[in-house]
Amino acid sequence: MEHQHIYDKQGKQICCSLEEKINKKTEHHSDDDGHDHDHSSEEKSTFQMFLPAIISFVLLLIAIGFDNYFTQSWFTGWIRIAWYVVAYIPVGIPVVKEAFESIRKGDVFSEFLLISIATIGAFAIAEFPEGVAVMLFYAIGEIFQTLAVQRAKANIKTLLDQRPDEVTVLENNVAKTIKASTAKIGDIIQLKAGEKLGLDGELLSDTASFNTAALTGESKPDTKAKGETVLAGMINLNSVCQVKVTVAYTDSKLSKILVMVQDATAKKAPTELFIRKFAKIYTPIVVALAVAICVLPMFFVENYQFNDWLYRALIFLVISCPCALVISIPLGYFGGIGAASKNGILFKGSNFLDVMATVQNVVMDKTGTMTEGVFKVQEVVFNSDFNAADILQLVNALESQSTHPVATAIHQFVGKIDSAIVLKDVEEISGHGLKANVNGKELLVGNFKLMDKYSIAYDIDPTSIVYTLIAVAYDKKFVGYLTIADSIKEDAQITIDKLKALGIKTTMLSGDKNTVVQFVAQKLGIANAFGDLLPEDKVNKVKEIIAKNKTVAFVGDGVNDAPVVALSNVGIAMGGLGSDATIETADVVIQDDKPSKIAMAINIGKQTKKIVWQNIILAFTVKAIVLILGAGGLATMWEAVFADVGVALLAILNAVRIQRMKF
């Protein structure tokens, strides 16, 4: 029996390894409900896919012409039956074959069986044109569904193609082409103009411009300077440049993106899971009702005609196919994931599209989320009892142990690290700063909470200064502080305005100084803002909001944000500057660090959910009406075809609409 995926209550696929999930998803499209398109068709041209339907359609038109308009004396009896059988075979045999395959795998009540019974039954009561027509339109619907799935995958397939298989490395100044997967950390890649970078690395050339669309959705060139990080998938736009590999092939940012996007389809939204379960219960019930429609009237109707009631039962079966639901709904979610990835937003599962649609509160970090995260030292205020240059060298050496943007600012301000400085017992104290021993003396670099923690006396009021302060203590004495300023991102104001327009409340939580946090919040119009928070304080604040039955999305970028990202209903990570821990924990990743993508992600979630529910209502309404008409003998096979294939096509067209939307 073919493996069927298993999902937990949250909609996460729990039965396969990640590799198996990826292989399953990239090899063929499966709806995990018995509806499994043969995606060998993906190898065929569109004409080849439609050829059997074209043959059946031509033969059916000729037969209908001989029956009604150009009557032929020879077109009767077995010749007429044989003609319709030949018209049926190109589209009917594959479906009948699928029905038997489904039964063999234990899925008896598949839509393939329903259509097969209905059309063969139509032949049994001499309704040959309708039998061929139902199967023909069903086959055409299947082809359109396959094309729609292919289209929905196009954005993600483009992403999958961004990583080149080979790279050119320099060995003793000789260029050599090797497989990207075999490149080692420290190798020098030579990248020509127009080539894609295969691994993450450090730019060795003075400057280079890159197209970063594969990672961010933005085609605007991004100019990098010597020493800056460049990522796999970026396209070199100008002259030849050299890049030193700093990250293994499988650990590159693009590799992680590919895993995230491919694995996203393994996490199903609650609506999807409900429809799958519903279809498995609904279809057998409808089959039983169809049998009842055919047989029960025998005991209650005086002029019972078996053929008439069988015809009604067959119509009932055609209408009952849950195709519109089981195809269009996953397709809607897949389209939402594709539309988001096209815009540089990665959803780790369709279930998070649903959650984003219901978000009532967006809680955000400040540094690197609403501000650039690019700090610059503004002022150094040290006690004259200390040698400022020597202390700055010690601070620079200690901060080199941290990846925080503040450390980068200090390094840029002070310059090269003095290799003669020996640090011992280096410790990063979360939410406070860094501690180490130098020359047998204690060195503390961090915020003023760190000074309080180690009972270091100081003679200034930190709250009186708006800028971020980095306090320094050496040998149990307060040395002084550095002021560091950060700038607000250019689209931060647009973000808050858009969120307000959506009726979403905003809150800013930060470990930074409260005066700085309040200054930024006031400038952006954020009503609730809290500073001087430790990671556990952020967690408690988010817990307070969730306790009020509010849906919370938390947006952060630092490793300190990982706990609160995990706690929130949906965690959003800034993927460009963000730490790997936060990106791993997050449910949604914004690749270009633009906060305006937060509102876009919510909008994509809302539009996806809207389309999914439009399809559910359309399918149920039309099917209910035609089922009642069919049972009452007021609907023919043609109405049944519309109720099944027609509604499915309308639902599919509606589902793919999301990929054309501008967000």
TrEMBL record:
Transmembrane segments: 49-66, 78-96, 108-126, 132-149, 281-301, 313-334, 616-634, 640-658
Enzyme Commission (EC) number: 7.2.2.12
Catalytic activity of the protein: Zn(2+)(in) + ATP + H2O = Zn(2+)(out) + ADP + phosphate + H(+)
Pfam families in UniProt: E1-E2_ATPase, Hydrolase
Keywords: ATP-binding, Cell membrane, Membrane, Metal-binding, Nucleotide-binding, Translocase, Transmembrane, Transmembrane helix
Compartments where found: Cell membrane; Membrane
Xref: InterPro entries: ATPase_P-typ_cyto_dom_N, ATPase_P-typ_P_site, ATPase_P-typ_TM_dom_sf, ATPase_P-typ_transduc_dom_A_sf, ATPase_P-type_domA, Cation_Transport_ATPase_IB, HAD-like_sf, HAD_sf
UniProt key word Metal-binding: yes
Chief site of localization: membrane
Domain P-type ATPase A: 163-261
Family named by the database record: Belongs to the cation transport ATPase (P-type) (TC 3.A.3) family. Type IB subfamily.
Protein known as: P-type Zn(2+) transporter
